[in-house]
Each structure stands twice: as C-alpha cells, then as structure tokens.
Amino acid sequence: MKRFYILATLFLLLVSVACSSVTVYSDYDRSTNFTQYKTYAFYKKGIDKVEISDLDKKRILRALERELRAKGMTPSSNPDILVNIFTKSREKIDIYNNNYYGWYPWYYGYGFYGPGYGFGYTNVSSSTEGTLFIDLIDARKKELAWQGIGVGILSYYKNVEKKEARINEFVTNIMMQYPPAPVVASN
Question: How far apart are CA 149 and CA 24, in angstroms?
C-alpha cells in the first residue's frame, strides 16, 4: 500500500510539472555572427506598447537582464543589440466528449455492479495560454537578428512569488535558445 502512495505522488508530481511547461521556439538570421553582440539595451518604445501590467513588464525585464548578464552581456547606452518584448494571450478550451450510450458488460453505478447501460459525459475545461516574444534587434542595422518565443499556460496567481517564478520560467526557457549554435559548413 505504501508503494501505491509513492507511485501516486510521483504521478501527480509529473502531471503538475508537465502542465507547467513552456514550449519554446526560436528563429534567427543565419548570416548573423552572434559573438559580436556584447552589449544590450531595452527598446523602450516597443516595450511601452506591450499590453500587460507595468509590474509584469518589470518582472520580465529583470529576468531578461539576469539571463543576458549570465551570457556575459552588459547594459550600454550605445548597445550592440536592442531587446524588445511582445506578449499575447488566448483562451484555450478543451472538450472531452464521451457520447457513448450503450451496453456496459460490467456497469458500476447507483450501488449496482453487473451488466447494464451507461451514459456518456462531457468534460469542459478552460485555461489561458500566453505567448512571450523576445526580440533581439541588431542596433546598427536596425534588423531583427534573433527571436525567441515561449508558449505556456498562464496562471493568475494571488501569490506574487509564484507569479514571478512562472515569468522566470518563461524567460529562462526562451533564453536557453540564445545564442543559436554556429552553423557548420558542410562539404
């Protein structure tokens, strides 16, 4: 019995981790030499247009600053790259419809166990799916050099620490894609 509880606990842990994951994509200009980028600045004009709370903007920018510094980059008033963000969200509705009306050889319900008829059911759940775009723009060329995109379920936490942890998870997972691996020329 103890083994069952341990397995059940592990299963619930895996399900909760799977539900909180962030799917990440990135795209970049293959002709760009990313080793040339040593300094950065936030693109205030673009960030001001993002339609999220100023508190969440600050959380995202702090997480980005931490990730860029960890990659050896420093802030500058004359940067190599400009960092911009963009967000969007959508309501995601999942419907599981089991419309089976028919014979169940071993139906359990209303205190009855044995042959009988069962009825289908419908389960509807909704969640908010958020997308965070992180753009790195070549400051000299004024062209997009790299873009990272993270998609995941948003939770409206009442607890500020949990909210900040979710934002950090988005930013960290996206920035793991930067810089892209150098392109190796094939013969």
Answer: 6
Kindly report the backbone phi and psi dihedral angles of residue 50, in degrees, each rounded to the nearest multiple of 5, phi listed first: -65, 130
Tokens encoding 74: 């420093």
Successive 10-residue mean pLDDT values, the chain, 187 residues: 44 43 95 96 96 94 98 98 94 69 52 51 75 97 97 82 93 97 66
This model's pTM is above 0.90: no
Task: Give the start-end residues of each E strand in the chain.
Answer: 23-28, 39-42, 74-75, 81-98, 102-109, 112-118, 121-138, 143-154
What is the C-alpha separation between 137 and 139, in angstroms, rounded? 6
Q: Where are the alpha helices (DSSP H) in the chain?
A: 2-19, 44-47, 54-70, 160-175
